[in-house]
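User: Design a sequence. Structure:
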């Protein structure tokens, strides 16, 4: 079907978000907004997310991928980022994508911590459906993962004594650096109160939900029960285990056709399949 890409800045209040619109040659009346993982996980997932955006556009869906304020190429300081700002960014990105696609019908796709932004935008912005890929279940879990990864890197690198506990530094109002991504005390406090199950309660009951677990295991962990039950309650919503590597944790760029295909199948089920031009192929990420 073909597609083009245009990158630039979107103003949200006094903040400026950097993003890329992936436009199909022959658009269909449905937009897709991708909400990325956080920090080093976003870097590791970059290739998967770009390929997913391009694949969506190849199938006729105008797709928007962007950096939250203070992250990536967006304006602002990472250490000063706040949860309310990111929630506002998420909703603004959805509105922008609908304008670009000239349709009010859109789908939110959230990966890891991006699941929270995706749910917020989907519930507040009237999304037709929501897809969550290996979502972080709580903000506390995210902070623990950041701290664990940082300490592991210290051990592997042979650095000196252990760093002071992150919680102690946040208690003093300091920002903590996690591999070049500083998390301020305010953002850490806001994250601790976040629960994905609680956020899901704000989603319309008739909004289909896809939940993807990416793992070598064949089953969902017990902690995912609320997510899987909600997914199966509203067709074509579904809960699936994708047998693949954790693409958000790889040291080098990693591709996951299985994850991409699962998300695309869900979106197609919402809209109905479109014929692709003979010989059309997906472009490789730059």
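Assistant: Done.
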């Amino acid at each position: 079907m073909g597609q083009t890409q245009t990158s630039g800045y979107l103003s949200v209040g006094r903040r400026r978000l950097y993003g890329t619109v992936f436009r199909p040659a022959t658009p269909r009346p449905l937009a897709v907004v991708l909400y990325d993982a956080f920090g080093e996980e976003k870097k590791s997932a970059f290739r998967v997310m770009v390929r997913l955006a391009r694949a969506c556009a190849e199938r006729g869906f105008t797709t928007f991928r962007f950096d939250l304020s203070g992250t990536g190429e967006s304006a602002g300081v990472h250490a000063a980022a706040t949860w309310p700002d990111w929630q506002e960014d998420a909703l603004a990105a959805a509105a922008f994508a609908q304008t670009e696609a000239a349709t009010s019908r859109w789908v939110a796709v959230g990966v890891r911590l991006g699941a929270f932004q995706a749910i917020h935008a989907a519930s507040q912005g009237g999304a037709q459906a929501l897809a969550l890929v290996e979502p972080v279940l709580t903000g506390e879990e995210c902070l623990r993962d950041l701290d664990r990864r940082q300490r592991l890197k210290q051990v592997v690198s042979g650095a000196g004594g252990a760093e002071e506990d992150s919680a102690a530094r946040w208690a003093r109002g300091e920002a903590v650096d996690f591999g070049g991504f500083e998390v301020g005390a305010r953002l850490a406090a806001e994250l601790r109160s976040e629960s994905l199950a609680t956020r899901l309660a704000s989603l319309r009951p008739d909004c289909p939900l896809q939940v993807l677990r990416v793992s070598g295991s064949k089953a969902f962990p017990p902690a995912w029960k609320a997510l899987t039950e909600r997914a199966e309650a509203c067709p074509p919503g579904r809960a699936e285990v994708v047998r693949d590597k954790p693409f958000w944790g790889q040291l080098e760029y990693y591709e996951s056709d299985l994850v991409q295909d699962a998300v695309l199948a869900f979106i197609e089920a919402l809209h109905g399949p479109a014929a692709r031009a003979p010989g059309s192929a997906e472009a490789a990420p730059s």
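Residues 3-137+203-271 form a domain with the Rossmann fold fold (CATH 3.40.50.1820). The chain has ten helices and ten strands.
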